[in-house]
Specification:
Blueprint (H helix, E strand, L loop, with lengths): L11 H9 L4 E5 L3 H9 L4 E4 L3 H4 L11 H14 L4 E5 L9 H15 L3 E3 L7 H9 L4 E6 L5 H4 L9 H17 L3 E5 L3 H10 L4 E4 L7 E4 L1 H4 L17 H17 L11
Parallel strand pairs: 1-2, 1-8, 2-3, 3-4, 4-5, 5-6, 6-7, 7-8
Helix pairs in contact: 2-4, 4-5, 5-6
């Protein structure tokens, strides 16, 4: 008789314990059921339903165009597949900035309609009212500092952030503020490794780095970049673990050729 092993869900509390014990946290994006099932089964701690779906799923130049409805669609698909991982969903651009009531409504919709476990928001002190309101409703919030892609038009470039002292100091203060408000973790994107180390050590909550060096409490990448499905994006911080676009391209070419040469389907492949 086979005993079915119950999969234990990762929670915000688990992540806190992982930081306390010095165990690194693995986080990766996913946007659909089939991919999320593979990612979850591989032992991922956190699956991020990122607004990067705007780029890799929809082909937009920035993360700005994706809507709350579209994020809920992607999140619902991922939640159906995730048995173990904590699912975090990005609040998309325009669904929380400047209006804490709208921010709360957006977060509630994500939680109710997708079944996800938490939301992620970009920014520091500026969004503190929204963060507080969402947390008061019992919804866990992950912060995001450093390079905040939703503010790309303000920055005008995707270069490394917080290289200068004034911006570094604001990031330190923002990180402490987000912790104080009650965020359960913070993503640090594209900042100097030394600053990420300092911030990670100053916080009780975990930091998840992307292009922020090895001293963060965890790491996150976009799955299409990491698997080499998306070939055009090759920043220094990306380690590519496969070249799936070549594998897929080869398989699809073989399929086309087999149809053209009449070798597919053969007699064994028909009824």
């Amino acid at each position: 008789m086979s005993v079915h092993k119950e999969v234990k869900r990762i929670t915000t509390n688990t992540l806190q314990e992982m930081k306390a014990h010095g165990e690194k946290i693995a986080m990766l994006t996913a946007y659909d059921y089939s991919m999320a099932a593979i990612v979850d089964e591989a032992g991922m701690d956190i699956i991020l339903v990122g607004d990067s779906a705007s780029n890799v799923m929809a082909g937009h130049e920035t993360t700005l165009p994706i809507t709350l409805d579209q994020m809920i669609y992607h999140a619902s698909s991922v939640v159906r597949a995730a048995k173990r991982a904590l699912v975090v969903v990005d609040l998309p651009f325009g669904s929380y900035q400047g209006n804490s009531k709208e921010a709360l409504n957006s977060a509630i919709r994500i939680m109710k309609e997708s079944g996800a476990h938490s939301v992620k928001m970009e920014g520091g002190v500026e969004i503190s009212e929204s963060v507080t309101r969402i947390l008061t409703a019992g919804i866990p919030v992950m912060g995001h500092l450093g390079l905040t892609p939703q503010s790309i038009y303000k920055f005008g470039t995707y270069t490394v952030r917080a290289k200068h002292e004034a911006e570094a100091q604001k990031l330190r203060e923002d990180a402490l503020k987000l912790q104080e408000l009650g965020c359960f973790a913070i993503v640090l994107e594209k900042i100097p490794a030394s600053l990420a180390k300092e911030v990670s050590e100053s916080l009780n909550i975990p930091t998840i780095g992307i292009g922020a060096g090895q001293h963060c409490d965890g790491q996150v990448l976009v799955i299409h970049d990491m698997l080499g499905i998306n070939k055009s994006f090759k920043p220094r911080f990306l380690r590519q673990y496969a070249s799936l676009s070549e594998v897929m391209n080869g398989a699809i070419k073989n399929y086309v050729n087999d149809i053209k040469s009449k070798s597919f389907p053969n007699e064994k492949e028909q009824y």
